[in-house]
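The instructor's notes for this session suggest beginning with a concrete chain rather than abstract definitions. Hand out the sequence below and ask the class to guess, before any prediction is shown, which regions might be ordered.
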Amino acid sequence: MTRPLYHPDAVDRRIINGLQEGFALSPRPFAEAAARLGLEEDELISRLENLRRRGAITRFGPFIDAAAMGGAFCLCAMAVPDDHFDLVAAEVNAFPEVAHNYERQHPLNMWFVLATERPEQIEATARAIEAATGLDVLRFPKLEEFFIGFRVTA
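After discussion, reveal the predicted structure:
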């Protein structure tokens, strides 16, 4: 089910841009981040919760490079019948190796990333998802890494 498009206001856009690089490792990291953004700590936390609830962000947390630690990532896609999408999404998301999962308006309408501790776990996890859902999991392993920053007009 697609949720309505959310249009972040100027403060939300400033938060999205400002928190993409660096987050303090301190007793009160949200307070430090809020101060840099000209906000109070509770407002920053509340706005992050709202951005997540509305679907403007899917998560807030560190990005861990599994491959640099001996693990692996793999982009995966599935063609899920519309009337079973929510059920299949719940089944897929129950796997701890699923980093994030997105619905797309395309015959391959479910896209997710697998992140595993060891490269050989990608195949095992994809097969387990196929067994749980009864659907094929297409695998698109990373051939080359690119870093693309995401910024919104503040």
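Then share the key points. The first helix runs from residue 10 to 18. The first strand starts at residue 72 and ends at 78.
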